[in-house]
Specification:
With 564 residues, the protein is an alpha+beta fold. The protein has three domains: 178 residues; 129 residues, Sandwich (Immunoglobulin-like); 119 residues, Sandwich (Immunoglobulin-like), CATH 2.60.40.150. The protein contains seven helices and 23 strands. Strands 1, 2, 3, 4, 5, 6 and 7 form a seven-stranded antiparallel β-sheet that branches. The chain has a four-stranded antiparallel β-sheet with strand order 11-8-15-14, with no helix packed on it.
C-alpha cells in the first residue's frame, strides 16, 4: 500500500510543483486539466485492478515481491505534461546550476553563464519506481529515468582576452535515479510539509560541446575545462546527498537540509602487485581518494616513483553527510609527467560497512571500472585503514586524529606555525599530522604458520626483523632451525615519537650460512593499537607463497611528556 500512497503523492506533488513555477495563468489552467486527467486515469486503473486482483487475504505479487514497476502509463501522461515541465524545470535548473558553474569556472575564463536553457520537446522515460521503507516519518520515492533529449542549451563564455564564445551543449544522453522525499507527514492537505529532490545515482551522462559558428579547438584545452566544470556543477548542485528543499506548507524545515554527520579518517597505507603501465621501468603510482567527487573534496597522495608495491602511509580526512549511502572511492594512477595520468585501477567501500569508532583494516581489489564488475584481470590491491567518527559520539570514544588532542609546548608551536601557512589560493594547509602521539610500543612476535620452504629439504631457518619506519630502529628474533611453523614468543619495546604516522615493518628471513633468503613481510600502522591499547592478531605475509605471522601489540602512552 505504501507503493500506491507514494505514487499518488508523487504525481500530485510532482505536477503541483510545476504549477508553482509556471508563471503563465493560461499554462496553469491547462496544466491543472492535465493533472486532473492523470490522477483520474491512475485512480481508475487502481480501482479496476483491485477488483480483479485483490482478495481479503491476498495481495498482488508486485506488492509483495517487487518494489520496481514499469510506468508506461506515467510516461504517456508525462509526454502531455512535458511542455509545462520544460517551462518550469528550465528556470529551476538554470537558477540552481548557474551559480555552481561560476564557482567552478576555469581560471582561463572570465565568465561562464547560460544565454539559453530549455529542455526541448522530448520527454524523459521513467523505467522504474521504488518506495523505500527507511523508517523515517515521511515517504521516500526513487524514480529511475532515461533521457535522450533535444534540449537547447547555450553557454555564454568570455575569456580574459576579450573573446566571446557561444558554446552549445548537444547530444545529451542521461540515465539515472532521482530521489523524492516527502516530509514531514501532516494532517493538512497535501499531507506533507515539504519535498526534497536529488539525483540519487548518475548512471550515465554523455554530451558534446560545439562552438556556435566556430571551432572548439580555437582555444586549447577549453573543451575539457568546460566539460569538467559542467560535471562538477552537477555533482555539487543536485547529486545526493545534496538535496533541494521546496516548502509546501509554512514551517521550519531546517532538519531536512544537508548537514555533516561525521568525519571519515582514512590512512592510505600501501598497494601491492600493481599493473605495470610503463614499457621501460615500472609505474610511478599515486592515489586519488574521495567521498564526493567534487574538486575541492578530492585528495591526492604523493607519487612513488618506479614501484609496483608502493608504501604511502598518508592520512586523509573526509566530511560525511550520509553514511548509509555514501562510499569512499580510491583510484590508483600512473604518473606520466606532463601527459595525462593513466588509470591503473580503482576500488570503493561503502561507509555503512564501517562500525563507528572502530578501525577497519581492509585490502581492496582494484578493478578497471566500478560500474562494470566483469573485470577479471589482476590490477593489484590497495591497503586502507578506515575510522568513521560520528559527531557527538560518546561511550568514552576519542578520535586520535582530532585537533583538540593534548599537545606539548613544542607541538603547539609547530601546529600554530603550520596554521599560519596559507596557499596561494587562500586555502589553509591541512596539517593534521602535527598532532603527535608519543609512547612505547611493545611488539611480541609469537609465532608463524605455514611458511613457504626455502631449503632443498623443504624446510627453513626463519627469523623476523622488526623495524620502526620513521626512526629505522631495528630488532630481530632468534633463528628457529628447520621449521615452517616457528615459535618465538619474544617481546621488543620501541619508543615511538609519532604514533599516528609511524609504521611497523616485520620481515621474515631464512638464515643461511652464506646469506639469507627473503620469506615475506607485513606492514602495520599503529592506529589500531592506539585506539584499543592492546590486541592480538594474525597477519598474512606479502611477497610470499604462503605464511602468516602471529603478533601481540601493546601501546603504553607517555603522558609525562605532556603539559598539564
Amino acid at each position: 500500500m505504501s507503493f500506491v500512497l507514494g505514487l499518488v503523492v508523487g504525481l500530485m506533488v510532482g505536477v503541483g510543483l510545476i504549477v508553482l513555477f509556471v508563471k503563465s495563468e493560461n499554462s496553469r489552467s491547462k496544466l491543472r486539466s492535465e493533472l486532473a486527467t492523470t490522477i483520474a486515469a491512475f485512480a481508475r486503473m487502481t480501482v479496476e485492478d483491485s477488483r480483479k486482483i485483490f482478495t481479503p487475504d491476498q495481495y498482488p505479487s508486485w506488492v509483495v515481491f517487487s518494489n520496481q514497476q514499469k510506468l508506461k502509463w506515467l510516461n504517456s501522461h508525462l509526454e502531455k505534461l512535458w511542455p509545462y515541465v520544460d517551462e518550469a524545470a528550465s528556470e529551476l535548473v538554470r537558477s540552481s546550476v548557474e551559480p555552481i558553474l561560476e564557482q567552478y569556472r576555469p581560471m582561463i575564463l572570465a565568465s561562464l553563464k547560460f544565454s539559453k536553457f530549455t529542455l526541448g520537446t522530448v520527454a524523459p522515460q521513467f523505467t522504474g519506481i521504488s518506495i523505500l521503507e527507511d523508517g523515517s516519518e515521511g515517504i521516500t520515492m526513487e524514480l529511475e529515468m532515461q533521457w535522450d533529449g533535444n534540449p537547447s542549451i547555450i553557454l555564454d563564455i568570455k575569456t580574459y582576452v576579450g573573446v566571446g564564445l557561444p558554446v552549445q551543449v548537444k547530444n545529451i544522453g542521461f540515465t539515472g535515479v532521482f530521489r523524492l522525499i516527502f516530509r514531514p507527514l501532516v494532517d493538512e492537505f497535501p499531507c506533507f510539509g515539504a519535498v526534497c529532490y536529488s539525483l540519487r545515482q548518475k548512471k550515465k551522462l554523455d554530451f558534446t560541446l560545439k562552438v556556435v559558428g566556430g571551432d572548439m579547438t580555437a582555444i586549447p584545452g577549453i573543451s575539457d575545462a568546460i566539460e569538467g566544470t559542467i560535471r562538477d556543477a552537477i555533482e555539487d548542485s543536485i547529486t545526493w546527498p545534496v538535496r533541494k528543499i521546496i516548502p509546501i506548507l509554512p514551517g521550519d524545515y531546517s532538519d531536512l537540509e544537508l548537514k555533516p554527520t561525521g568525519v571519515l579518517e582514512v590512512k592510505l597505507v600501501q598497494a601491492k602487485e600493481l599493473t605495470n603501465k610503463d614499457l621501460i621501468g615500472k609505474s610511478d603510482p599515486f592515489a586519488e581518494l574521495y567521498v564526493r567527487p567534487v574538486r575541492d573534496r578530492m585528495k591526492k597522495s604523493k607519487t612513488i616513483n618506479n614501484q609496483l608495491n608502493p608504501v604511502w602511509n598518508e592520512h586523509f580526512e573526509f566530511v560525511v553527510e550520509d553514511p548509509l549511502t555514501q562510499h569512499l572511492v580510491v583510484k590508483i594512477y600512473d604518473d606520466e609527467g606532463l601527459q595525462a595520468a593513466e588509470l591503473i585501477g580503482c576500488a570503493h567501500i561503502r561507509l555503512n560497512e564501517l562500525e563507528p569508532g572502530k578501525v577497519k583494516d581492509v585490502w581492496l581489489k582494484l578493478v578497471k571500472d566500478l560500474e562494470i564488475q566483469r573485470d577479471q584481470k589482476n590490477r593489484g590491491q590497495v591497503h586502507l585503514e578506515l575510522l568513521y567518527c560520528p559527531y557527538g559520539m560518546k561511550n568514552g570514544f576519542s578520535n586520535p586524529f582530532a585537533p583538540n588532542v593534548s599537545m606539548t609546548s613544542l607541538e603547539k608551536v609547530l601546529k600554530s606555525g603550520a596554521e599560519g601557512n596559507v596557499l596561494q589560493n587562500g586555502g589553509e594547509i591541512n596539517r593534521r599530522k602535527d598532532v603527535i602521539v608519543r609512547g612505547v610500543l611493545s611488539v611480541t612476535v609469537i609465532s608463524a604458520d605455514d611458511l613457504a620452504p626455502t631449503d632443498l629439504m623443504g624446510k627453513a631457518d626463519p627469523y623476523v626483523v622488526i623495524t620502526m619506519k620513521k626512526t629505522e630502529t631495528k630488532n630481530k628474533t632468534r633463528v628457529v632451525p628447520e621449521s615452517l611453523n616457528p615459535v618465538w614468543n619474544q617481546t621488543f619495546d620501541f619508543v615511538v615519537e609519532d604514533g599516528l604516522h609511524d609504521m611497523l615493518i616485520l620481515e621474515v628471513w631464512d638464515h643461511d650460512t652464506f646469506g639469507k633468503d627473503y620469506m615475506g613481510r607485513c606492514i602495520l600502522t599503529l592506529t589500531k593499537v592506539l585506539m584499543e591499547g592492546e590486541y592480538k592478531e594474525s597477519f598474512e605475509l606479502d611477497g610470499a607463497k604462503s605464511g602468516k605471522l602471529n603478533l601481540h601489540l601493546k601501546w603504553a602512552p607517555q603522558p609525562i611528556y605532556r603539559d598539564s
